[in-house]
Queue: 2 jobs
Job 1
Amino acid sequence: MTDTETPAATYCGRFAPSPTGPLHAGSLLSAVCSYLDARRHNGRWLVRIDDIDPPREMPGASDAIRRSLEVHGLQPDAAVSFQSACRDRHLAAIAELRSRGHLFDCGCSRRDLRRHGRPGPNGPLYPGTCRHGLPAGREARTLRLRVDQERDSFDDQLQGPIRTCLAETVGDFIVRRSDGLPAYHLAAAVDDGGGHITHVVRGHDLLWCTPPQRLIQRLLGLSSPVYAHLPVLVDQHGFKLSKQQGAAPLDDRKPAANLWLALQRLRQAPPAALRRASVATLWQWARSHWQPERLRGLERIVETGTGE
Ligand code: GLU
């Protein structure tokens, strides 16, 4: 997102949708923004399907997502990857964190956490019940990462300097779930870290996830990407459009209209004359006129219908 050009070989961005439903107008903004940032830097752009949460998956969603990306001209520079295929790598990272003493077994349920957790900005903070050993009669359910006085500071390319004290924002967090699967922070941190992905462009709703993911990368000795968190699309009532809330899927029969609207929402002011242009023409225009600085400091974009 910076004006300083990143050499082609060093930029690798990604779009990482979860297959919990088809793409909607909000997820298109993330895809378009990360794609244009990669193109602007002559970088590579990858698509990774974050299929690490089988209970939340919707059958057919990953195919629908891939089809939507294709008809919208969002062509990745390598075959689409699947996070589930990297489970061994995620489990190895958990084993390494454990062997270095960063994790502890936790017997608490979500209900325990709701009852006893301290209120935090992103949900209840872990009260420390199992931090120094499982209390008698408790069985290990999850593995948590011990967060002490870790602070984090980084420069978000769109949101500016971010400073956090992790104990106050996330607390001890889960890296292996009660069903034995790696948790989102762990999988994302490992797959984005180590120089594989150099730039992460994603929604502002995930800004709070960046410090714990950077912490995991630090503890594992992996480099962290540059982050940019773009505003999220919200409805008239201020609620984020999301697959879980049943946001309307993108209409793949009118990709050019969807793209024009996405560019408009992203404050790029596409000319009205391009409203009926082809997908290829729109991309050509967008690539040469991309001005991400117009999104700087913005956290939300209100969806005001299709005629914006
Ligand atoms: N898979 C996550 C989602 O769809 C996004 C992950 C990310 O961009 O880090 O919400």
Job 2
Amino acid sequence: MSIPTQWTPTHGEPFRPVPYRPPRMPLQESLARAAELRERMDGRRTVRQFSADPVPEQVVRDAVACAATAPSGAHQQPWTFVLVKDPEVRRRIRAAAEEEEQLSYAGRLGEEWLAALRPLGTDEVKPHLTDAPALIVVFQQRYWLGEGGEKRKHYYVDESVGIAVGMLLSALHLSGLAALVHTPSPMRFLSEVLGRPVNEKAFAVIPVGYPADDCQVPDLVRKSLDQVLVEV
Ligand code: IYR
């Protein structure tokens, strides 16, 4: 399993701006694209039942590359994406996740949380972790760790990685793949199974694939634009 080389920060370098002149999109095109994108994004659903069919790996890599264009605190890009294809590693992740989830659903979550989850139909059984042909495990680099053990602070890590995951989900969906943001809790086992360094903390496990032929999703209703947008 390859471990990406750590990025070296440009810490302390002077500001050397370069021109940015993207061509302005014509109004009609902008309106049409926005409306189309809105409709396509509304078609995204979190999927928990995956087909075992393989996915085009380049599509997944391109989606990760899109995610890695996210803005980040001080442009520190504090993320690592581990693409897990090996079925044995996926089995180990599933076994460890289910062990934690059994404790969660048996009471650790508490009645109020369980009631909130009831309409989603989730439980401690996580077949998506082995059925989906790929998992993207997203790690946050809580701080930068140099080769010689030196550390540097990272800023707004939660926000940065959250934005990157949003962009990842959008890229996967718009490229025709389904995904699920799974956050087993606690997630320490992911660092152990995937051999990640101490400065990295698991953020989410994202199974990626095609929905199973008999896939079902909860009958969710999204808030309307009026309910989420305040214009002043
Ligand atoms: N991590 C658990 C529980 C869970 C929590 C939330 I908040 C969800 O939106 C869904 C599930 C699980 O994966 O089942």
